[in-house]
Amino acid sequence: AIADTFEARRGERMAWYSSATMVGRFLAPFVGGVLIFGDDFRWVYLADGFAGVLAFLAAVRLPLATATSGSAWQTFKRQRGRYGQEIAFVLRHPGILATSGIEAVQYFAFGSLETFLPIYLNEKLGYPAWKIGLLFTVQILSATLTKPVVGRLSDRYGRVPMIAGGLALGGIATGVIILYPDYLTIAVLSAIFGLGLATVTASTSALVADLSRAQGRGGALGILSSIMDIGHSTGPMVAGVLVAAYSYQMTFEIVGSLLVLISLVYWSGMRRLATRTDQSQRFL
């Protein structure tokens, strides 16, 4: 809905939406804990239901991108051929697939970091759980607060440079965070990784929306999300194999180097693709 509603400043608007969801996820455990009185969980679920009703009322007031008649099922039957064509268009579009792959690579690193950095900090450096949790709070806050800013920058300076730069920044932070035992340095590097994450994800969804056709925009963003989930889920598995085979330091250096290398490949490939398709304004 955000992508359909806002053609101008799409990156900034979608980044505000993403930051709002992150705020909700950040506050939910705290608010839920406050609403638990002894063994009474009723107030938690009542609050959930109330929030869901408010979200529903807000959703029904959203403007429709296109007017429809009849039920959703009737609309689907009338336009199922077009849906298939739009999905096929997305799956054949190299820019959309490459950008979705970048999102997967970013979340591959994120999954690796959030799984094995706490274990390393606890087992090797002896940091308590509350200090480790605070590091990831700093990371999420960094990503949440900077997303609208980097989304606006992607509107002004282009999606691809922001994506490539953010991925490289996150790769550098991932590769060196394991080298410093000092808590403050780790916190700064964690915040830098959050900034890189925000820079990438604020621009990937906007670029996929830019490159897709209006009728298939939802499908394109759905494919982006699905590919991202694959990267997020495989990160801990692959990192676990690397930790077992080598070491924590080698694992983080490999993951960080992978991000930097892929950022360069993506930037170069998208520039060539933009030149070949004469769509440099849309890509860059």
Quick one: biggest sheet? Answer: none
Total helical segments:
11
CATH class: Mainly Alpha
Structural class: mainly alpha
What is the CATH architecture assignment? Answer: Up-down Bundle
Structure overview:
The protein has 284 residues and is mostly helical. It has a single domain (2-278), classed as Growth Hormone, Chain: A (Up-down Bundle). The chain contains eleven helices and no strands. The protein has helices at 2-5, 10-34, 42-60, 72-92, 94-123, 129-157, 159-176, 183-211, 217-245, 248-277, 280-283. The protein is globular, with a radius of gyration of 21 Å. The mean pLDDT is 84.
Structural features:
mainly alpha; 284 residues; Growth Hormone, Chain: A
Layout: helices, strands, pairs:
Elements: H1 2-5, H2 10-34, H3 42-60, H4 72-92, H5 94-123, H6 129-157, H7 159-176, H8 183-211, H9 217-245, H10 248-277, H11 280-283
Helix pairs in contact: 2-6, 2-8, 4-9, 5-6, 5-7, 5-8, 5-9, 5-10, 6-7, 6-8, 7-8, 7-10
Offer a concise description of the structure.
By secondary structure, the chain is mostly helical.
